[in-house]
Amino acid sequence: MEGHYLVGNQGIYKVQKFLGEGSFGKVAKCTKLGSPECYAIKIVKSSWAGEKEFKMMKLIKDLDPDENHLIKMYEWFQFHNMTCIVYELLDKSLHDSLMNETQLVHLCFIRVIAQQLLKALKALKRIGVAHCDIKLDNIMFAELDSVNVKLIDFGLAVETKKLSTETEIQVPPFRAPEVILGIPLDESVDMWALGVVLACLYFGNYPFPSETEYETIRAMVQIFGLPEAEVLHKAKNKALQAFAAPGDFQSARSGVLSQSYPPKSAAF
Hints:
- It contains 8 helices and 12 strands.
- By secondary structure, it is of the alpha+beta class.
- It has 2 domains: 5-88, 2-Layer Sandwich (Phosphorylase Kinase, domain 1); 94-260, Orthogonal Bundle (Transferase(Phosphotransferase), domain 1).
- A 6-stranded antiparallel beta sheet has the order 1-2-3-4-6-5, covered by helices on one side. It has a two-stranded antiparallel ribbon with strand order 7-10. Strands 8-9 form a two-stranded antiparallel sheet.
- β2 and β3 form a beta hairpin.
- This is Protein kinase domain-containing protein.
- It comes from Oryzias latipes.
- Keywords: ATP-binding, Kinase, Nucleotide-binding, Serine/threonine-protein kinase, Transferase.
């Protein structure tokens, strides 16, 4: 499909190359005929998934994307039974850029990223939206030569009031304990995921094992202690068995940072 044209509402776009591919579709770097600008167009195979993401972007359109560190959307259109969403073209994700580093990320650098993403979450909370998929791949640098990041990919985002324990959200390494346990959810799931992102940057590893939900929640309990009884009473997940299993704190400490990130080393 490289070299092909996509006919949008605001112009005609030429596909230059594909930047990535996910479960719902692909992202292409495109130029717009008659303009020197480049764009990132998300080409979604499922019309339902594409329209869902577009609706979320409509909810946040009144937020200043630059001020609040959110990706900017320009337009949405249907083309050959595919949903196309036109976004600003950003640089690299935290995952791709930091995997090439050979030294630990400086705390001052992490602090700036934290401040920017907390601003993004505050803006989303103000309009009642939860992102639900915060991870290293979904945070991108606007420019690599400046510490300016943006939150991207609102394909799993939902209105906070519509979050339920049946909602399938977050990839395992960044999954909040309330999601694992099946207790009522709110925008705090994004705050947890952001915390995991920052821990990854600081340690160079995923902070919790994530092969199974059991070992994930067990590691959390051994570090943070048991949740309150009233919280456990609301839980619906079998991972609750973790609370009945004995374990010492030292063994948890030795295993909590055992999953290497990035895979090639314990530091970037």
